[in-house]
């Protein structure tokens, strides 16, 4: 598939993917899903949100995708969430147009100011190093320019110098007027070009081809929830998109960027609200405390927050561990303005000093009137390294399952936990000077039916105690 001008693309290649004996492995799936809904600038046209490709008979997959800094798109700073053979967890990937050819195996991790790891083509990393070197040289040149500027200031004290400066200022003002006129002309031209691009995109009709008996694998255009047909040939390109004009149908999405965490020892949680919070978001706060609980509602939440988890604690051999998930729907501008920059959750007075961990994050596309579609109570560890989740039943299959896990471990060990079929979204660990660790982990998975699959939390180490529960979030209709 080719994207219409002026959209810029990058060709991403995977493989060859080989078996242990060195033979190619066809049929392996490479999937890139955009982390945000993308539209063509100035229109309601929605670009493909997911593109996937199978490896062919040589074990290689190649797909042309939209560059993450492409012109003609109404968003900037977005990334892809990539899954591919040999990658245990989904990665955030940036594919700038300056590297039009990239390989999955050559992507290298970077850590931008947001603190979240983003993978880039290695040639761009080398370019960044050269840019940094050039910046050092530029800084030296700026220092030399500053010295000349100081000398110019002394001459400016002279009347002749002042007159010259005034003449220069008049010339600058004239240039500024010309620049403003040119800017208006450029704006008019850009509007004309944008209208032409929109007309071209709206008139674009993608070819239709279904892989069947032909020799070439071909490609498929599928809806968001359509299954890949049986017998689809290796090497087939699969496009998924809600390509509509007008108000788009947004999916329910866990936003990991901008999330805030809290770790401390004490009896309260003072956690900053996530950055980027907006009207229409569902603000979620997950938290756990080391204290041994004897009450059914150990936490005191800020005004407006409601508890989504069925329980607020899980049983242990010596009592209960306070753990819960709270929500605040941001229904309008007034609610957004009232949401505190720092949210204070406290333990009831009878609780003592202990380790605490929390994470605040936002969810887009949730039904703010009735976000909770189902929930389970907490279960405790059935073995030193396993916690089974209770069966989750949802009122709708159109949503997201969230799993909440908390544990206490000793000896300076930190559990590395996973749930088959779910993505680990957030991990928060609080390790005290004694070496004991309180851990909090949040997982997610899309709902595919009203009954979630049977799941269990599995750890690489044993723990002193652990518990887990899950909830189903309803998507906005």
Please give a structural write-up.
The protein has 477 residues and is α+β, with helices and mostly antiparallel strands. It has three domains: 9-124 and 205-240, no CATH class; 132-200, no CATH class; 253-474, no CATH class. It contains three helices and 29 strands. It has helices at residues 122-156, 159-203, 333-338, and strands spanning 9-14, 29-34, 50-54, 61-66, 80-83, 91-93, 101-103, 107-110, 118-121, 219-222, 237-240, 253-266, 268-272, 282-289, 299-300, 306-307, 313-316, 319-329, 342-347, 354-364, 372-375, 379-380, 386-388, 399-409, 417-419, 423-431, 437-446, 456-459, 465-474. The protein has a six-stranded mixed β-sheet, with no helix packed on it. Strands 12, 14, 16, 17, 18 and 20 form a six-stranded antiparallel β-sheet that branches. It is globular, with a radius of gyration of 27 Å. Residues 206-215 and 242-249 have low confidence and may be disordered.
- Strand proportion, as a percent range, falls in 35-45%
Radius of gyration (Å): 27 Å
Largest sheet: 6 strands, mixed
Low-confidence stretches: 206-215, 242-249
Separation of the first and last Cα atoms: 31 Å
How many E strands? 29
